[in-house]
Design the sequence.
């Protein structure tokens, strides 16, 4: 997943794709301050606080533990000094991710439910997914700073040019890590497993190694991601019987830590 920015905040986000987005609600009080930063930047010399002070305020106001909800955009409204994206909170019905085909279909739906549902109806085939309003019918407004006039000598810092709380291009590992507390039926939260000891479950995700050497720690294709698993697989096939060189082992360990950190399983 990646941050939704002002550059990608286009009308087709609503008219064509209507994607499922991931919102870090714990940052919303902090992000509301960005409106004041933008106002000060537009005001130029009339601004009340230097940008550096706003940055310090925002940094100290950030919560330690993020809380995420799935949302779907409903409207983009022009706002003073920028735009406001309105979203509705939704509960997702994605099934249990039984195999690779299910995961890939779910990720297509997450990125464009409108397109996926239309194609499924036309083909009369495919897995049915759904998003319904939450019980409390929560709605959110996320502010996106606008572009300053060319005549302005002020600027909105790059760190504040887009909300750092709203993400698009959501994948199944993002759903598991952020919305399902990391619960994974395939590896039971270990983020990896021996592909020869899963009683055939690994094969449903093409996670079978060429040599089923017991004890090989393959990364989980469900909660760590299919692409990441396929990237990791050649290393394990190469060194399933032999100790890898220290530099290659260190590089793999670094890749694993980076992926854990990206998914929120590891925090600095």
Sequence:
């Amino acid at each position: 997943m990646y941050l939704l920015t002002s550059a990608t905040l286009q009308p087709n986000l609503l008219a064509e794709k209507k994607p499922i987005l991931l919102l870090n609600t714990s940052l919303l009080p902090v992000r509301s301050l960005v409106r004041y930063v933008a106002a000060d930047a537009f005001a130029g010399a009339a601004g009340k606080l230097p940008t550096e002070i706003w940055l310090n305020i925002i940094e100290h106001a950030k919560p330690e533990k993020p809380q995420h909800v799935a949302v779907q955009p409903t409207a983009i409204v022009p706002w003073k000094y920028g735009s406001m994206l309105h979203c509705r909170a939704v509960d997702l019905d994605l099934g249990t991710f039984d195999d690779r085909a299910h995961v890939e279909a779910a990720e297509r739906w997450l990125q464009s439910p409108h397109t996926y549902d239309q194609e499924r109806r036309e083909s009369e085939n495919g897995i049915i997914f759904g998003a319904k309003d939450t019980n409390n019918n929560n709605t959110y407004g996320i502010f996106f700073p606008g572009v300053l006039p060319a005549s302005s000598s002020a600027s909105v810092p790059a760190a504040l040019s887009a909300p750092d709380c709203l993400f698009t291009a959501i994948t199944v590992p993002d759903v598991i890590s952020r919305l399902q507390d990391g619960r994974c039926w395939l590896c039971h939260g270990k983020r990896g497993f021996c592909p020869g000891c899963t009683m055939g479950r690994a094969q449903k995700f093409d996670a079978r190694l060429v040599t089923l050497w017991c004890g090989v720690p393959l990364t989980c294709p469900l909660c760590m991601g299919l692409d990441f698993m396929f990237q990791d697989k050649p290393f394990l096939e190469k060194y399933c019987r032999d100790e890898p060189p220290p530099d290659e082992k260190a590089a793999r360990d670094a890749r694993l830590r980076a992926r854990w950190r990206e998914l929120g399983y590891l925090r600095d």
Q: What stands out?
A: Residues 94 and 129 are 5 Å apart (CA to CA). Strands lie at 2-3, 21-24, 68-79, 82-93, 130-133, 139-145, 166-168, 192-193, 218-219. The mean pLDDT is 81.
